[in-house]
Amino acid sequence: xxxxxxxxxxxxxxGGRYIGEKLAKELGISCYDExxxxxxxxxxxxxxxxxxxxxxxxxGSLLFNIASSLSYAGNVxxxxxxxxxxxxxxxxxxxxxxxxxxxxCVIVGRCADYVLRDRQDCLNVxxxxxxxxxxxxxxxxxxxxxxxxxxxxxxxxxxxYNHYKYYTDREWGMSDNYDVCLNSSLFGxxxxxxxxxxxxxxxx
Length: 204
What we know:
Elements: E1 5-10, H1 16-27, E2 30-32, H2 34-44, H3 48-54, H4 62-68, H5 84-102, E3 105-108, H6 112-115, E4 122-128, H7 131-140, H8 149-168, E5 180-183, H9 184-202
Parallel strand pairs: 1-3, 1-4, 2-3, 4-5
Helix pairs in contact: 1-9, 2-3, 2-5
């Protein structure tokens, strides 16, 4: 079946966001990453920076969130009795499903591979990279402090793992959850884009 939707899951520092953006441009379709966060923020009423920072890191556990970020501890429960993180997750899911129905697109992160798991027109991709390359990208592309970059990357990936596990009951980064797993250190950004594009075109 033709693959209309490409989901990109990625390790922090692997270049997955760049791959998603470049792939979408070459395919002539939309890429939803920052745009998706803006849409979730508008629908939820939360600030975009809150969605961006916490949207792939929160779980529904009160103790987890108190331990992770005391600044949000007093705001864990939303007005309808649902936790903030669950409310954001449900809104995010609804928007992702609406986008998939509306048009061919690339969706970066946000558990999109799981949210769209019942669709046969999705190609689910996981991007990873060698540790030294991730650190180098984090320092020179993301502006992370050199001495702290490795620790920050590890912490972010652990948060993504916990978030994904909580909401999907699956293991983030495990090959069984994806159609394609690519090492951007081996293939490069452009190489990964070409491989994914070729797969999409083969499915037509």
